[in-house]
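Researcher: Structure prediction, please.
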Amino acid sequence: MAQPRARELGRGRAAGAMTRIGQAGHRGERSDCWVRVEARDEGGVILCVKSKVEVMYGHAVRSTCLTVLDAMGVRNAALTVEDQGALDFVLAARLEAAVKRAGMGAGATFLPPPGGGFDGQTARERFRRSRLYLPGDQPKHFLNAHLHHPDAIILDLEDAVAPAEKDAARLLVRNALRVVDFGSCERMVRINQGQLGLEDVDTVVPQNVHVILIPKAESAEQVMAVDARANAARLDAGLTAPCLLMPIIESALGCFHALAIASASPNVVALTIGLEDYTADLGVERTAEGRESLWARQVVVNAARAAGVAPSDSVFSDVSDLEGLRAAVLEAEALGFEGKGCIHPKQVPVVNAGFAPTPEEIAKAQRIVLAFEDATQRGVGVVALGSKMVDAPVVKRALRTLRMAEALAMVPQDWRRRAGGTLADGDDVRKEPLAEDGSW
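Model: Predicted structure follows.
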């Protein structure tokens, strides 16, 4: 189909012609643009483009505008663009939002070609130490977020986006999931509550989002509704991998239903807590000591463990206090959490380091596993490292420590061979036989 012809914006609109206007985007924001579309009954497409990168990319900006308008079925409109270096996927999302706000393009959409990271996969069993929240309506944060090495990137459609911008943010997040290469980071989206959230699911799941965060989770039914909608969207899009889920407990009611929520679907992989909303629900201040939320955090940890999913802690809201964050991470790990949310890139290395094993922990875990495997091979059942006995739960924790160390390249995959299968001085394998089922 031929693109609509364009001419520079000027005068000459027919008297009495109907006008409908839609706007989207941000003026003066780096890597973004502001778009105004005025629907007209006649006169073709009139463009007025002011671009920060006019010399090198002005022609490309105009070409993208015409391509999107054509896909949206717009034949008569006046389009104004103020561009601050927005990439094509941003310009396309802003233009589509403005067109729809102007009452045009019903049922139409424009999907940019998928980028190199579109087909990236995740796994249910993976480490999710840090998840970095990015406001879903601010594209300037998208492109370089993976360079800070969070385990996951969350494109946030809920609290970070003003109610009036939800529709435009959804299109921007959709396009980002298609185009932006987030590297090895897991691709997450926090949807909105209720029906708006289900509509978010319809839009983002076909773009191969890995994990959906479900806010204000208070019942298993909420989780099942999102799960069903995500499965339908996934199948319609021809995707084979499941869309994983991470419900967020943010109220007293959610705490009392935490186990049901964590067990609501086999696609739930983690359970987390939002302490700002939780303390607001209680009517108390959130404090650095956290006495007001200790019970709720313990509930989340225990519910997650009982359901066989990972517990993940809330964000630390003071981005300037890295020492406070470090202490909070150590406390969270001691409570049983496996990860924590981040609201600024500089928090990511602190969180990653806090949930990673230390060299001493790795060395101890290696000794435990080597002793256990030696005992198993020799058919004996009780291991002592120095003066301490080692039982099955200890071995389980040691194996998890080593799996993380291997995943983080802190030890080589063949560490057993390099260790030579030897025990440290003072380690002893007690020659007590295993039970017939191999248990301790």
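Model: Residues 320 and 346 are 9 Å apart (CA to CA).
Researcher: Thanks, that helps.
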